[in-house]
């Protein structure tokens, strides 16, 4: 009983943190506020049922919310569109490496004999407010770099997933000078802020193979207006598309 109560306390703590991380706005965020809350409140009951940790992994659809599942279904559908396009996969903004590891496992299933690798880029210091985006919560989405490396190594995926600890605003140019051959077929931008997204667009877009896809996690979303501004400035005539069954990522563009 004591263990169950501890788990309940942790869930309630996590729910408070989630509420802090996602500031409620006036438009897009309010559409999903009432849909997210019941699921997170229901976690208290789920974690009191005595499931083993292995159950949470091997039977994850029993526990993950439909919005979480829809996100990875979107990434899956977009990934499938790139099969047959030459290049690697990049994730800008790694956080807990869910995107990078998901793509790596998709390559194991669909491209076991290809050269396709997954490159994740993050500075692992969390978000940072700027004068233009003062409402960004300092330190949100911060993860331990060494823990990510251990997570990848424990699954024997370090031959597919390569995580680069660098500042996306200032260090991409040097990275690509040192790896000037590198080409991508799928680029997932999950950073959100104007200066980061603009830097990624400048350095990744020229390296995206024709027919490849760039994915925007927070385009046209009020909590990340900088991403929309950067995209509109960099590619004003781009044909931005979305998959209607997913809430995030919100848009993608296929390179002509």
Notes on the structure:
The chain has 256 residues and is an alpha/beta fold. Helix content is 44%, strand content 13%. Strands 3-2-1-4-5-6 form a 6-stranded mixed β-sheet, sandwiched between helices. The longest helix is centred in the first third of the chain and has 20 residues, at 2-21.
Question: What key attributes describe this structure?
Answer:
single chain, alpha/beta, 2 domains, Rossmann fold, disordered N terminus, globular, 256 residues
* Quaternary organisation: single chain
- Biggest sheet character: 6 strands, mixed
What's the total helix number? 9
Structural class comes to: alpha/beta
Instruction: Output the helix-strand order.
Output: HHHHEHEHEHEHEHE
Arrangement of strands in the largest sheet: 3-2-1-4-5-6
The proportion of residues in beta strands is: 5-15%
The second-level CATH architecture of the largest domain is: 3-Layer(aba) Sandwich
CATH class of the largest domain: Alpha Beta
What share of the residues lie within helices?
A: 40-55%
Through-space gap between termini: 59 Å
Give the mean pLDDT.
88
Return the domain count. 2
Low-confidence stretches: 1-22
Shape: globular
Radius of gyration: 19 Å
Number of strands: 6
CATH names the topology of the largest domain as Rossmann fold
Topology:
Layout: H1 2-21, H2 28-46, H3 53-58, H4 66-81, E1 88-92, H5 98-110, E2 118-122, H6 145-154, E3 161-165, H7 172-178, E4 184-189, H8 194-204, E5 208-216, H9 225-234, E6 251-254
């Amino acid at each position: 009983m004591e263990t169950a109560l501890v788990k309940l306390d942790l869930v309630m703590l996590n729910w408070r943190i989630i509420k802090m991380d996602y500031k409620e706005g006036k438009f897009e965020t309010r559409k999903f506020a009432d849909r997210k809350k019941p699921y997170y409140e229901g976690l208290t009951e789920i974690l009191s049922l005595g499931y083993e940790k292995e159950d949470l992994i091997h039977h994850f659809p029993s526990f993950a919310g439909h919005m979480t599942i829809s996100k990875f279904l979107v990434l899956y559908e977009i990934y499938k569109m790139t099969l047959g396009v030459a290049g690697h996969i990049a994730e800008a903004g790694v956080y807990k490496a869910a995107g990078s590891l998901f793509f790596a496992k998709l390559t194991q299933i669909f491209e076991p004999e290809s050269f396709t690798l997954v490159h994740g880029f993050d500075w692992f210091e969390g978000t940072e407010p700027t004068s233009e985006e003062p409402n960004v919560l300092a330190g949100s989405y911060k993860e331990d770099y060494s823990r990510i490396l251990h997570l990848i190594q424990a699954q024997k995926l370090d031959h597919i997933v390569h995580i680069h600890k660098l500042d996306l605003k200032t260090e991409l140019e040097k990275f690509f000078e040192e790896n000037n051959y590198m080409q991508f077929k799928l680029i997932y931008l999950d950073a959100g802020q104007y200066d980061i997204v603009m830097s990624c667009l400048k350095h990744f877009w020229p390296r995206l193979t024709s027919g490849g896809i760039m994915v925007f996690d927070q385009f046209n979303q009020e909590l990340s207006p900088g991403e929309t501004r950067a995209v509109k400035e960099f590619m004003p005539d781009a044909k931005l598309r979305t998959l209607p069954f997913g809430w995030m990522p919100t848009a993608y563009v296929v390179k002509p």
